[in-house]
Each structure stands twice: as structure tokens, then as C-alpha cells.
Amino acid sequence: MSASVESEVKWNQEVHTFVASSLGIRYGTAMNLRFIIAYCLLILWLLGIGGCTNFHLPRFSFEEDASPRLPFVVRFLFDPGLPQATLQVDACGLSHTIRSGEIITQAFVTIGQKRLASVEVIPNAGRSLPAQAPNNVTVQLALRHQAFKRIDQGQEDQYQAQVELELLAIYFDAQGQKRAEIPLRYSRRVNMWTPELSSQSISCAAGQFDSEFEEAARQLARDMIAALPQLYGQPPAPTTTVQHSAPPVLPQPHAEPLRLSFRTLLQDANNNFVLEGGETLVLTIEVTNKGSMPISSATIELSGTPQLVQAFAQVADLPLRLPTLQPGETTTTEIRGRLPKMVKGGRGELIVSVVPTEGPPAGSHKIFAELQPAQTTASPPGDIRQAPASRPALRSAAVKSAPSQQDSADFPYLALLIGLDAYRDPWPGAYTISSGHMTALADTLRTTGLFVDQHIRILQGAHATRTDIEEALFSWAIPRMSPNTVFILYYAGQAVTHPTTGEVYLMPYEGSLSVSPKRLISLRALQRALAKAPARVTLLFLETPVLPLLQASGHIRENGKAPARWKSGLRRGSRTPHVIQIRQATERSHDPAALLAGLLGRADNNHDGTITVAELLHDLRHVAVISPSLDPKAPIGAIPLSR
Fold it and tell me: What is d(CA 609, CA 600) in angstroms, rounded to the nearest whole number?
């Protein structure tokens, strides 16, 4: 028996035991017939979903409409210019181009393939329509109006906009005679999560702009199809086999649109983001090919404040040519520069653009920084290698200056701090953390000299829902990780245990003692997700007093109460664990940054000015439960956490 099958069998056995205990069923005794039937039906349903053995934080998703296919063969006739249509939107201060025509045509064909017997695209809208079979329909589509109006950019990377799309659908019968003209309209206010690509840049992730417009196009496609039975009746099913028909060819402005995305990060020598005269700079650009075709030629171009552009132009040959990018491939380029000794003080602006040789540009990122003349009383700023690094150690394209050798102990550092200062449905004695507590934690990390502001993220109160935590972990932290990343995840809030299984759950903002465990965050699932993350080591700090879950009646289940399983998702027996859990032993802390206070200097046992992972864990041994224990000779013990 394979390991996956054994895991599935064991999982199903655990489900059987849990359901039986939940229903009050004891094997070997008489059971009520209704309980037996309900139990069997529930087990059959669980067996259908029990094949998943990978534990992760669930995501919300919506399934496509499973309605039966309509027996129509539809030929789409797109007006000239519709497939090439584009829409410019304000994406957090920079222009973003939505390829609206491409999205509309693809949405109609995709939905048509799911809901109709067959679809076809007529390339030229001007030609006459030949006679067809009785159940064949031609639909001509014209773009009347499209808009993506920004309403507001709220807190925590929230972006509100009004999405509008109007098409005119002209229906023709099998003889080419016009049957009807129907306007298709979509208007909806949307609230999108658009995280900044770096804290220095006003640019943000633009993927949701395309997704929201695609949803508008797909809804109009459904509306178009819904009108067919009203206009033509319900024809007999076609006799041809449509499953093996060739897929339609969409008219597009080019054979395969190029899809480039990129992120930028500007660093100065002392990481204070005040660019002083004579200071060394490093600009990091991470470019990803998100299309299905290789991109053979693209360049990085810089513009903006002349002093900033010249700082890089005198060191690197600009524009900088990127290597060929295969589908899904990411390349990271570092451009080094040095400001002149004499700079004019004020606000500087650096605009970074990635321009492919063919196709539209990938957009621009605008980075703002304060320019300041060199300090005459201080020595010139050192090289960027002497500053705490916060960028991934990834390969770079060739630049004019030779790349320096990175110090072996110089790793990127990330921190996600989650603190519950309130709950949506509070209860007496609920464990909460003040906002000042979280500020103290962030300030402690900043004093280390290794955690920079753009790599520290805080979630509090109403912004610490389960969805917010999932987004922060999977869409912010993990994409920024590399094999050398040191990641700190700090959770301060209420924890609960299941009275039967002993499983521990962390409480998000919408949690309560009587809520279903499915609404909470499984600690075991979180531990396993962190173990799969590409970081070198993750330190999971838990400031979590624990209470038992309640039944729906509001009473604590005492019979069969199991001890809390704090380590069920941690790997055992590994000399170099990827996840180390540090759980505070006391219920409440008198120190606003108790678990991290050692980073302020107390944990520096050998007084060499550097606090390592091993030294911090040794400092916490009397106030925290550490799992698993770290081998003193383990390499990760020497990783610095403060300098």
C-alpha cells in the first residue's frame, strides 16, 4: 500500500471516529435508525472529499454554473476593433492597460464552450452570412461602453471602483435574417485588494483589475446565452459530435499577448531611504513572464529626477537588456549606482519601466525618495554590502559593475505580526492585544538592523480576518521568500482547543468560542503550510492563552476532553527544522514585547554584538515552550537576528 493510500485510510478512520463520537454512537450497541442513515450519508460524503491529504489554509472559490448545455450552435461575429480594444485605468497612481477586447472575446468563447453545443468565431464581420442548420445561430457583438472608475483607495491596500461594460448583441437566424438587438449591460461597485509592490512605490499589484473586468465580460456572456431559448425556442439537440470539434480561433491583435509583471526595490547604503550625496545605491527589479510564450527581448528603462537616473547611468549601460524569459520564469536584475557628492536636496523620483521589443510595455513603477547633500562631518557612506540586506539573493543579469560577493550570513528578513485588539463578537475574558503592543513588537524588529519597514507587515483587529491572514501569508510573505529567508510570524490572540481531538485553532477577528472550527485557523494546517514555504527558517511566535471550544448549546464539552496538540503539524526528528515554534508559557505578558525583548541586547550571551537564533531561543527557555528543541550544532542556530 502506498504512503498516500495509507494516509487516506488513516484520515478516513479518524473521520469515522470523530463523527461517531459527535453523534453519540458507540459501536456494538443498538443505534437509532435515523442516526444510522444520517451517519452513513455523512460518511459517503466525507469519503468523496477525503482524498486530499495536503493540509493548507483553505481559499474561497466559486464553481462554474453546472447547468446543462443548450442545444445551440452559435457563431460569434465580433465587430472590427473589438478584439483590439483596451482600457486605461488608474492603478494606484500609475496607468494600467486592461486588454478589454481580448478579455471579452475570450470570455464569450469560454462561456459558450461550457454552456452551448458548439461555438465558432467568424473572422471577418463584413462578409455575408450563409444559410445554416436550423439550430445554428449567429450573434454579432459590438462594444458600446467600458469604464473602470476609481472611487476611493481605502486602508490596508483596499481599492474601490465602479466597473461598467455595455455590449450590443445582434442575433441572426439560420437564414441570416436579423432576429433581435439586445443591449447587454454590467455595472457593479467592487472592492479589491491591491497590495503595494514595495513600500517605496505607489504602484500596486494590478492583477485584480483584469480579473474584475473579466468577471464583467463573463456575466454578459451568460446574459447573451440566456436569451437564446426566448428568441429561438428550444431546438432539438444537434446530431454532430461537438466534443471533438476544433476549438475556435479568436481574432487578436497579435498571436500571443505578452504578459510581463515586475517588482522593484531601491536600497541605499544605510537603509534609511534618505539618499545622501556620494552614497551607493542598488535598484532591484524582479521580472516574471506570466504568458505562455517565451519573451526573447525586453529592456529596463529609467527616467525621472536626472540626479537619480545619472547615478545608475554612469555605472550601468542603460537601457539594460534582459535575458530570454521562458513561460513562468523569473529573473532578478540588480543595477548599482552612486550619487554624486554634490546633490540638490529635495524629493527625488525614479520611474522604472520594463519594455518588451514586441507588444505593449509592462507598465511603470514610480519610486519616491528624499535627496540630501552629503554630511561633511561623517565619513562617506559605505558600500551596500555593509548594510543589512532585505532583498533575495537571486541571480542577476549582467551589469557594468562586477557583482560583489554577498556575506554568507546576510539573509533577507520578513516579519508578519498579527494582533487581535478586538473581535467581531467579543466574549467576557477574550484575550486582546493593544495596538501599542504591536507597535512595540515592530519597533523591536526595526532596532535589529535586519528587518526593514517594507518587510514588516502588521494585521490588527478588523483587518485580521481569516481572509486577511491568508492573503498576507500566501500573497505577501511567501512570494517574497527565497531559500535564504528568515521569516518571523507572530500571532497574539485567543487560541481554542477541540475538546475531543485536542486540535488547536487560532482565533481570527470573526472567530468566537461557539463558532465552527472551519471558521478558525487550524494551527496544524498553519504549521504544515509554513514547513512547505521556501524560507530557510520560520520562527512561529504564539502569544495565545487557550480555551476549549463550546458546543452549539454554549456549554463546554467536558467528557472526553483531550490535551491540546500544539505540535501536531511540526516535523519531528529533524536536526535542522524549518519551523521553530515559540509559545509563551504565561497567560499574559507584563513586557509589551516579551518574546522578542531579547533582541534588544539581553540575549547576546557572548557579547559580540550579534544575537543569533540559538541565543534568542536560549534566552526564552524559561518563559516559552520551544518546539522542536534546536540542536546546539545546527547551522540555523548561527543565523543572526540582530546586529
Answer: 11
Element (H, E) at 37: helix 33-49
- Specify the pLDDT at position 333: 80
Same domain, 380 and 430: no
Which pLDDT band holds residue 191 (cuts at 50, 70, 90)?
confident
In a domain, 292, yes or no: yes
Cβ-Cβ contacts under 8 Å for 218 (sequence gap 6 or more):
107, 110, 111
Structural domains in the chain (count): 4
Query: Please, what sign has the CA dihedral across residues 303, 307, 312, 318?
Result: positive
- Biggest alpha carbon–alpha carbon distance for the chain: 91
Dig out the grid coordinates for 183 from the structure: 443591449
85: CATH: 3.30.160.150
Residues 103 and 100: their CA atoms lie apart, in Å, by 5
A 10 A CB-CB count for 143 gives 18
- Looking at the structure, do residues 33 and 77 belong to the same domain, yes or no? no
549 and 629: one domain? yes
Give which of 495, 260, 270, 539 is closest to 378, Cα–Cα: 270
Q: What is the mean pLDDT of the chain?
A: 74
The answer on 423 and 337 residing in a single domain is no
Q: Are 481 and 538 in contact (CB under 8 A)?
A: no
pLDDT at 582 over 60: yes
- Do residues 29 and 142 both lie within one domain? no
The residue range of the domain holding 337 is 260-386
Q: Which residue has the higher pLDDT, 436 or 536?
A: 536
Tell if the pTM clears 0.70, that is, is over it. Answer: no
Q: Is there a single domain that holds both residue 365 and residue 429?
A: no
**Domain holding 266: CATH number?**
2.60.40.10
Nearest to 256 by CA among 290, 288, 286, 287: 290
Can you say whether the dihedral through the CA atoms of 405, 410, 411, 413 is positive or negative?
negative
For β-strands 486-492 and 413-419, DSSP reports them as parallel
**In 422-539, alpha helices (H):** 435-447, 466-471, 523-532
Please tell me the distance from the alpha carbon of residue 270 to that of residue 264, in angstroms, as a whole number. 18
CATH at 461: 3.40.50.1460
